[in-house]
Write a structure and sequence with these properties.
Number of helices: 3
Subcellular location: Nucleus
Order of helices and strands: HHEEEH
Oligomer: single chain
GO molecular function: translation initiation factor activity
Number of domains: 2
CATH topology of the largest domain: TATA box binding Protein, subunit D, domain 2
Pfam family, one: TFIIA_gamma_N
Strand content: 35-45%
Number of strands: 3
GO cellular component, one term: transcription factor TFIIA complex
CATH superfamily of the largest domain: Transcription factor IIA (TFIIA), beta-barrel domain
Helix content: 25-40%
InterPro entries: TFIIA_a-hlx, TFIIA_b-brl, TFIIA_gsu, TFIIA_gsu_C, TFIIA_gsu_N
Length: 110
Amino acid sequence: MSHTFYQGTRIGQALKEALEEMEEYEQISPSAKRMIIRKFDDVICDTLENKVDQSLILRADRLWSFRFCDSAWQLLLKNVEFLTNSGNLVASVNGKVKIVACDARKSDRR
């Protein structure tokens, strides 16, 4: 199952901007653009589900907000550090970070 919120990531935004520019200059058709974006969503989901075998530890200054709706958690954190299981810093974000977490078992049944 594909989730379109990956299009909101930096790489997703960059892809959409590049495809829109190519469509504007008639280098690709609108249907090809939609197909590429759909494939991007599928590949991101598949990669995260099947090829990422490590977990990250999140450490934030503040949990800005949270909600649970339609079997998905949305967390808005402020000033977040992403750490490996051994405590090594992977990335640090000053500002807000939005995390969306879905129950994979429920999405597979649909």
